[in-house]
Amino acid sequence: MVRASLVLFGALVALSAGLVATAFGQSASTTTLKGTVGPAFTISLKKGGQKVKVLRAGSYKFVISDKSSAHNFTLERETGGKFERHLTSTAFTGPKSATITLKRGKWKYYCSVHESIMHGFFTVR
Q1: Of 7, 48, 52, 123, which has the maximum CB count within 10 A?
Q2: Which of 66, 77, 69 minimizes the C-alpha distance to 43?
Q3: Rounded to two decimals, what is the model's pTM?
């Protein structure tokens, strides 16, 4: 009787551990944001095909398609603390990805070579 109880207890512990791991695995998925720079003087950042305007604070996978060796894709936090990162370099063309934790504040994405005409903004809440 004791042995049967221990086997049953062990099975329940294993099942519970599996359910907890599954729950944490599902909540750990990272939202993808798609950025494009070039080939002309254009830059964009989209989530699910829509222009990014407001996001929740958290971790995001940035997938950048750089279509011009004359441009780059830079991400900067303008309010709430300094952050600046070049996700692609000026000479680079092709795809690049990076996972970045976005904190609350106003953010800007832009081409650092043509910042005055190639930029966009979004807010993280």
Answers
A1: 52
A2: 66
A3: 0.77
**Strand segments (E) across 17-118:** 31-37, 43-47, 50-51, 54-55, 58-66, 73-77, 83-88, 94-102, 105-110
First to last CA, the chain: 56
Q: Give the span between the Cα atoms of 107 and 94, in whole angstroms.
A: 24
Other C-beta atoms within 10 Å of 33: how many?
A: 22
Tens digit of pLDDT at every position of the chain (125 positions): 544 443 444 443 343 444 333 444 444 689 999 999 999 999 999 999 999 999 999 999 999 999 999 999 999 999 988 999 999 999 999 999 999 999 999 999 999 999 999 999 999 99
Cα 91 off chain centre by = 23
Handedness of CA 67, 72, 78, 82 (dihedral sign): positive
Report the candidate in 124, 1, 111 with the shortest Cα–Cα distance to residue 54: 124
